[in-house]
Amino acid sequence: MSMMIDRLVKRTVLVCAVLATLAFGVNHHDHPCTGQQVGAGGMCVSTAWTGGAA
């Protein structure tokens, strides 16, 4: 029983990692950072508080 649970956990972690990688890639392509923003994968942060320096 323990081996089945371990296998299920490993498979779940692998599937989640693959889905997260795909989501990151899609967001990075469809929602790139623009102007005074830095970041990746659609997760952009404004640099305006630094005076625009990136």
Rounded radius of gyration (Å): 18 Å
In spatial order, strands of the major sheet run 1-2
Morphology call: elongated
Major beta sheet, specifics? 2 strands, antiparallel
SSE pattern, N- to C-terminal: HEE
- How many alpha or pi helices? 1
Quickly give the structural class.
Answer: alpha+beta
The residue ranges in which pLDDT falls below 50 over 5 or more consecutive positions are none
Separation, N- and C-terminal Cα atoms: 52 Å
User: How many individual β-strands?
Assistant: 2
Strand content: 5-15%
Helix content: 40-55%
Q: Overall mean pLDDT score?
A: 85
Structure, described:
The protein has 54 residues and is α+β, with helices and mostly antiparallel strands. The chain is built from 1 helix and 2 strands. Strands 1-2 form a two-stranded antiparallel ribbon. Strand 1 and strand 2 form a beta hairpin. The model has no long low-confidence stretch (mean pLDDT 85).
Concise structural overview:
The chain has 1 helix and 2 strands, in the order αββ.
List the helices and strands and how they pair.
Blueprint: H1 2-30, E1 37-40, E2 43-46
Antiparallel strand pairs: 1-2
Keywords:
54 residues, alpha+beta, two-stranded antiparallel ribbon, 2 strands
